[in-house]
Structure formats: structure tokens, C-alpha cells
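Field reference: sequence -> structure
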Amino acid sequence: MVRLAIGYVVVSQPFQGALESTMAKKWTDGHSSSILCLNVSKDGLVASGAEGGELTIWSEEGSPLERTQVQKTDDVTCVMFSPTFPRRLYTSHGEIVSVLDVRFLKKPVEYFHVNEEEINCISVNETDSFLAAADDSGAIKIIDLESKKLSRCLRRHSNICAAAVFRPQRPQSLVSCGLDMKVMLWNLQKARPLWIVDLQDEEAEEQSAGQLFNPPLVHSLSVSTCGNVFGCGAEDGKIRIFRVTGAKFEQEAVFNGHTLGVSQVFLLPEAYWLITGGNDGKVLLWNVSNEIEKSKSPIKSIHRRKTKAPNATKNVDKMNTELTSESEPISPKLTIEHGEKVNWISYAEIKGSRSILVADQTSTISVYSVPEQ
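Structure field:
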């Protein structure tokens, strides 16, 4: 069932002429408890996972097509459609990853139990050959989907690994983040990370300057379709944009967006547009393409060639941060006063309309239409 509810939207450039309030569609009758995760297939199907093992498949019109309970005691923490087989759905619940056919959810096609603690995030590379499962121990277990066996365990995070995401166009490469305030770049051929950025270094600098803020525990990340740019959301309310160059990555921009922790980030398929959701109940749309283009300037290129360090752990690039702060402040192009703490954000084109899908503490999915640029 689809219902309508008021959600307040503040619009700035480039969305001139759009209304300052909008009707948020509410997808109902799919769950009885808080929805924790969302994913959209290439065919337009939407999967949602909730507390108590609830799993639902929705049509793009917002009607529940299939429902099941994969596990009564464990929450469904992440769902992801196969990039090559749209009817195949991967779900994580507790320490298990189940593989299901969306046409018949009652019984998993197969399952993997290789993690030792609760899984927070799963990601499948674009060739559907490897699955990464990040868990509370800080480990990332890599499952070979062809041999159906554990391929490798990536263990460097010293606290909960909140997210691990494969990079598009690079099926052997992924990035991860965690509550140890670290962001890492991995290659599956190596057991150690290629590059590490410790956001605690930035925190120490700001504390020495007398600033007080929440620690930058990193909750989520999203990678662009080009595979070279990704964004992270942290507990300090900041969004950070990084660019991968070879076997390392550097911070291109950092900006404040939320008054509380940033629980979700989502890079749109188009060029460097970003959706963020926070514990403050706001959903924001950003255009960070200017910041990415600035990173190609001659000044920054010279600086990069001079960067040297004795090991893989790197401080946040101070010059990059300074250049960003000296330019015009980054402000959201669209502000949605959602009103509930955001659990998950996704994006879909529904009947030709660009839409933001939001899961929160309730049992409904909110769908907001994005004004045309």
C-alpha cells in the first residue's frame, strides 16, 4: 500500500521553481518492525530488510510482492541484488549471508557462515565473483562465489567494520571504514591494506585548536560509478570525499552537513552528486563535482608528487583540506526534513522520476521525488 505524508524540503540552486514542501510517498504493509536496509535491482525491484529477520521485495509502485522471515532472532542488516543476475539477492543476518531467489523467498538457495560476529555490510563485485562481509570484529571476510568457499580474511580494523564496498570497474579492489576512525583501501591479492587514512589525526589537530566535537567514527561509505571517488559519513557530522590514485587515496573535500552523526551516504550514478542521511533526521542532496574538478589543478598535482611517507598509514592531506576550506562553503542543494533517524538511503528512477528512498526507525519506506536539475 502507498500512502502520502508531508515531508518538508528546502530547495536551493540549481532547483529553481521547485516547491518548498513535498508529499513523501510512504510504502506500507511490508514490515512490522524498523527497516534497517534497502537495495534496488537493475530491474527496478526494491528489497528491504528489517529487525526480526523480516525481508520484503517491493514493486517500483511500492506494493509488497514477496515477504519472508529469514531468521527470527537476527536482524537483516544488509541486502544486495546481484549485479549480473537481477533475481538473485544476497542478505546478511547475524553471522550468516543467505542467497535467495526473489521469486521464491521462503527457502535460501544457499548460505555462507564464515563470519564470527554480526555482519554489518555486504558488497558484491560487479562480476558477481566475490562477496565481502564486514562484521563487528573488524574483519572483512571475502567469499569466492564461484567455488563457494572463503577466499580471504582482511583484518586490520581494530573496531567494528561498518562498511566494505567493492569499487566499480575494479573487481579485486574495495574500500572499507569503521568505528576505529580509519578508512582503508584493499586489493584482494594482498592481505594488508594498500593505504590507510586515520581520521583521528584530524581530530587531534582540531582538539589542539580548542575545538570540541564528536569523534569521527565512520559509519558508511559509497563509491562512484567511475570507481575512483568515494564519500564517507562520520559521527562528527562531517562528509568526506576521497579520490583514489593508484594504490593510495587522498581527501579532496570535507564539509559539515548534519548536526548529529552521518549514518548514510550514497553517490548517485550521475557525476558526483551525493545523498546523505543523518541521526538528526535530515536527508541532504549535494553537488561535489566542483570539489572533484579542483583536485585536478596544477597546484595540487605538484603537491601530490612531493608527498612521501614511510608506511601505508597516511595523515589526512592538510593542503587539500586547506584549499577546500578557502573556497566557497559547500552547501546542500536540497534539504529534506525527514524527521526520523535515518537507517538507510537508496536511489531509484521510478516511472521516469528520480527518487530517494529512506528507511528509518519506523516500518515504512519514505520515497521523495528529486526535482529536475
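Note: The CA atoms of residues 45 and 267 lie 19 Å apart.
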